[in-house]
Amino acid sequence: MVRSLHWLATSAGLALLPFSQAIPAQVQGSSTCRYLPGDSEWPSAADWHQLNTTVGGRLSATVPLGAPCHEPHYDAAQCAYLAAEWIYPELHANSSSSFSNPYFQNQSCDPFTSKTSPCLLGNYPDYTIDVRGAADAAAGVTFAREHNIRLVIKNTGHDLLGRSSGKGSLGLWTHHMKNISILDYHHPRYTGKAMKMGAGVQGFDAYAAAHKAGLRVVGGTCSTVGLAGGYTQGGGHSMLSTLYGLSADQVLEWEVVLADGRHVVATPTDYPDLYWALSGGGGGTYAVVLSMTVKAHADGIVTGASVTVTQTNSSDAFWEAVTAFHTAMPAWIAKGAATAYVIMDGSLYLMPATFPGYNASEVNGFMQPFVAQLQRLAVNYTISVNSFDNYYTFFDTFFGPLPDGSYTNAQVQGGRLIPREVLMSADSNRALTAALREISSNRAFRIIGVGTDVSRGGDVPNAVFPGWRKAITWIELTADWDFTQSYATNVANETLITNHYDPLLTQVTGLANSSGAYLNEGDFQQKDFQTQFFGGNYASLKQVKRRYDPEGVFYGTALVGSDDWEVASDGRLCRSSENN
Q1: According to the UniProt entry, where is the signal peptide (predicted)?
Q2: Pair 573, 163: CB distance under 8 Å
Q3: Which of these, 165, 63, 67, 172, lies nearest to 124 by C-alpha position?
Q4: Which member of 34, 145, 501, 569 has the lowest number of beta carbons within 10 Å of its beta carbon?
């Protein structure tokens, strides 16, 4: 099903102000802040028209996706459609300006407020360039820099920390850069099959192209996520990560436009510092990515083991089963497996444990010690083990149906990387179970786990958070955004993660500064994000940031260099008072 509104594909004419923007009386802006509409320094209509000419007519003034739900554009049928589809990421991916995170949407124009409430731009960009190549990206970067306005980069808008949003911004939309090439790659550091993909390529695009060539590539379990954007630039875990590493470990080349408009290719030997930073140091921070080239691996058999454990009369037995699961998991991972699992509503869902290169008989043997523990505990369980000839069919079965899959993307979230030694110690494993049990007692939350071992890393050092190299699982805490409840009620769940649940997990790890969190799926309010998301890499990453983006053209929540800025009460981005 195509979840999009075709009438919104073409935005308002450039002769108009951006849609329903609340424009204050003209004021004198400050050079320490990015300018907003209403500031005397904001680009004129003639400036925008010139930019539109420069990019071949692909600049559009934003019409918020939720406009049909508000007067004077109210359309009951269109609004009902939007309300039903709002939680799905593909709806926002096909919009030049929309993004998925409800916190940053800020109820400015969505299907869940009164039709009489105004539809405002809020954190949506005022204008967006539909980027089709280096010249478009360079024009946008140069315009934003010279006019001192905020710049945001978006492919799908899937970013969970709102990094595709920004009030008073110019957006660069890379979604239509869908080119894919299968290469025979030759370099002193790697010779073999590779895939070059444009910045708009999503997981399902890459998986299909790889499958057609008898290959597989590392990508996320949510098939609508763009691969070359924040996913890979922030690390990128996968069901193939134990075997091959994180997505950032696969990168051979980055094709980018820099903050000064230059078009360059970064590799381990050309612009090696930039290559290092882009490969795990956070998306939208150092350059506009146009394409990336990654390793492609020979396809083959993949077996998935699905297990469901449900609570019986004894909740203690169920939580002992959770401990048994975490005890068993390192042995599976040692064989190259990765796990995706969920704990919610008194059930544990392993969905699945992924074993590349093994058949069903072998995997049944690997699972037997865990099954024996479930039988000993007398909990209700089911197990199903199935083999597939290739990764694409496996993925379609467990994470499909492709292309879009079934993931929703309207939530609050945070979490913590759990070091291997936590699961290898009986005492600390039980302490982890106790923490998860406390969190799970709040039925608004579900616990999502991704078990993998990426300690080997790639052939070339990169900026992946060092905590990943010590981790055995990423524990993510999520609660669905309930649009029937108040904005404040939903924000309270995020604050609960920040102030209670994350510290609870941190106590379990006993390694507050080295376990850390995953910057793509963490808490946007993460305290000490510099240490928790980047660790010992932060100082070096900031040096790279200053070298390639000295004016801070690129900004994103809790990314490198964001501590040089703060969001003012009117939403404008300003230099931090500590840096003025």
Answers
A1: 1-22
A2: no
A3: 165
A4: 569
Please list, in sequence order, all residues whose beta carbon lies within 8 angstroms of the beta carbon of residue 375, skipping any fewer than 6 positions away. none
Rounded to whole angstroms, the Cα distance separating 554 from 283 reads: 10
Distance, in Å, from the CA atom of 274 to the CA atom of 267, rounded to the nearest integer, reads 8
Do residues 291 and 228 touch, judged by C-beta distance below 8 A? yes
Q: What is the pLDDT of residues 213-253, one digit of tens each?
A: 999 999 999 999 999 999 999 999 999 999 999 999 999 99
CB 436 within 8 A of CB 412: no
Q: Could you give the CA distance from residue 38 to residue 40 in angstroms, rounded to a whole number?
A: 6
| 77: its two tokens | 């049928």
d(CA 215, CA 240): 13
Taking only the tens place, the pLDDT of each residue in 479-507 is: 999 999 999 999 999 999 999 999 999 99
CA angle 57, 61, 63 (to 5 degrees): 130
Helix (H) or strand (E) holding 80: helix 76-85
Question: Where do the domains of the chain lie, and which CATH numbers do they carry?
Answer: 7-173 (3.30.43.10), 180-298 (3.30.465.10), 302-389+403-533 (3.40.462.20)
Identify the sign of the CA torsion 338, 342, 348, 349: negative
- 413 contacts 478 by C-beta, under 8 angstroms: yes
Pairing of strands 445-451, 338-344: antiparallel
Of the chain, the end-to-end C-alpha distance in Å amounts to 50
What is the number of other CB atoms lying within 10 angstroms of the CB of residue 363?
23
Q: Long-range CB contacts (< 8 A, 24+ apart) of 359-363?
A: 359/301, 359/303, 359/387, 360/303, 360/385, 360/386, 360/387, 362/303, 363/303, 363/305, 363/387
> Do residues 84 and 97 touch, judged by C-beta distance below 8 A?
no
297: its two tokens? 């691996």
Strands 380-388 and 565-567: unpaired
What pLDDT, on the 0 to 100 scale, is given for residue 229? Answer: 97
Provide the β-strand partners of residue 445: 479
In the 8-state DSSP scheme, what is residue 386?
Answer: E
Q: What pLDDT score was predicted for residue 234?
A: 98
Whether the pLDDT of residue 165 is over 70: the answer is: yes
Distance CA 410, CA 281 (A): 25
Residue with tokens 């190549």: 133
Of 142, 151, 158, nearest in space to 172 by CA: 151
Rounded to two decimals, what is the model's pTM? 0.94
Q: 179: burial class by Cβ within 10 Å (0-12, 13-18, 19+)? A: middle
Query: How many alpha carbons lie under 13 Å from residue 139 in its C-beta half-sphere?
Result: 23
Q: Any alpha helices (H) in 12-62, and if so which ranges?
A: 45-54
Write the pLDDT tens digit of every residue in 443-478: 999 999 999 999 988 778 999 999 999 999 999 999
Q: Model confidence over 342-357: pLDDT tens digits?
A: 999 999 999 999 999 9
